Amino acid sequence: MIVLLSVCIILALSFSFELTKGLIFDFRTIPFIFGLLYGGPRMGAILLVVLLSYRFAIGGEGVWAVLITYLILYVSGCFTWKHYQEMSIRKRYLTTIGFMLLTVLLLFISTAILFGSFAFFDIVFWLNFTIIHVVGVIIFIHLIEMMLQNYQLRNEMIRNEKSEVISQLAASIAHEVRNPLTTTSGVIQLLLKDEVKDEEKRKELLKLAKQELKQAESVISDYLLVARPYQNKVETLSIDEILYRSIEIIRPMANMNNINIVSELENNCYVTGEVQKLHQSFLNLIKNGIEAMPNGGTLTVKCKIIKGQSKVQITIADTGIGMSKHQIECIGDPYYSTKENGTGLGMMVVYRIIEGMGGKIKVYSELEKGTEFKILLPQTD
Ligand code: ADP
Ligand code: MG
Fold first, then answer.
1. pLDDT tens per residue across span 80-124
2. Quick one: fold of 235-378?
3. Pocket test for ligand 1, best of 163, 331, 366 (most atoms within 8 A of CB)
4. Please, which residues have CB less than 5 A from ligand 2, an ion?
5. CB 288 less than 6 A from any atom of ligand 1
6. In terms of Cα–Cα distance, which of 273, 263, 275 is closest to 303?
């Protein structure tokens, strides 16, 4: 933003308008105020330096008037900036327009003082000057607010994608929990009816019930680990453990689809990051693998340390439908999906999370053969 706005300022100053000799007008205030209000005092200061240096370099009369005018604007901008962030869009428009009017007023006064009279009072000029400033800044705000909204929308989509994964998992998890519950309730029924007289047999049945309940509990706690909102806690994580849990949580879904999961997890693959984000990345990759094998197949999940490079390598491969060259290029682009009910956000989230951790992702895929994702993450000792 600093670069863009600086260019705007320099262009505005280069294509200025000379009212009479030595009296130069232009629209540099628009990018300046804009940067100050959206970017804060620091960005404003940099833009101010750019503006003033270029203005001084050009020279001409009124340099001191410019200096005072922009210092006043800068200081008032600094005071407004904090509140500006919390304002509604309507108030932002009004505030920024207010700043434009203040600029015109300050320029008008300083011109009058500089020349000692209102000799340059040309009402048509000042009217035009004011209107263009106001309209210009309205267009500027409109564009940036649209961009900000887009950005927020995209973040929201990522969150929705997560809830979609979670609700899909919920269906298979519920299934997985029901079986142990059915067994347990059967056992209790038997015991209640007093049909089992043998003490040994009773104990065995109770043991079975306990085991089944424990199984249900572990399924639920695995699920909760993923379903909880992000906590943004960065810590040392063991990749093999996270992969193991991801596999366990997805196993019911794999079973329903006739998919065999093969895992080779080397111990003590440590990296630094946020557990839930990594969990989600792996789940997204594994889920894609499962979805690529509608007629069953094998899903391979591996992790190992690459000693020479201090990296942890994770491999997630399927024997599914594979991807064309074009698909490989598009993968990770937001909303790119070849599935009927796909969101096209799963891979984007994966790329963001892995790249955010300083990692890299490679894709190897062949149509009808399968796909392999290789992830390299920096190792933590
Ligand atoms: P979604 O799963 O909602 O379609 P993703 O971002 O997870 O969105 O994936 C984007 C696209 O990448 C998929 O629609 C699919 O075409 C392709 N893709 C991802 N993983 C695989 C895979 N393991 N095998 C084949 N195609 C895949
Ligand atoms: Mg997906």
1. 998 998 888 899 999 999 999 998 898 888 878 877 766 667 788
2. Heat Shock Protein 90 (3.30.565)
3. 331
4. 288, 346
5. yes
6. 263
- Boundaries of every domain in the chain: 2-121, 235-378
Q: Cβ(280)–Cβ(165) under 8 Å?
A: yes
Cα separation, 208 vs 179, in Å, equals 13
**304-335 residues labelled b (16+ CB within 10 A) or e (exposed):** bbeeeeebbbbbbbbbbbbbeeebeeebbeee
pLDDT for res 280: 85
Global confidence as pTM: 0.59
Determine the Cα–Cα distance for residues 27 and 11; give it in Å rounded to an integer. 9
Ligand nearest to the CA of 326: 1
- Report strand pairing: 297-306 vs 259-265: parallel
Distance CA 230, CA 277 (A): 7
Q: Which of these, 72, 55, 73, 56, lies nearest to 12 by C-alpha position?
A: 55
Q: What is the pLDDT of residues 215-234, one digit of tens each?
A: 888 778 767 766 777 777 89
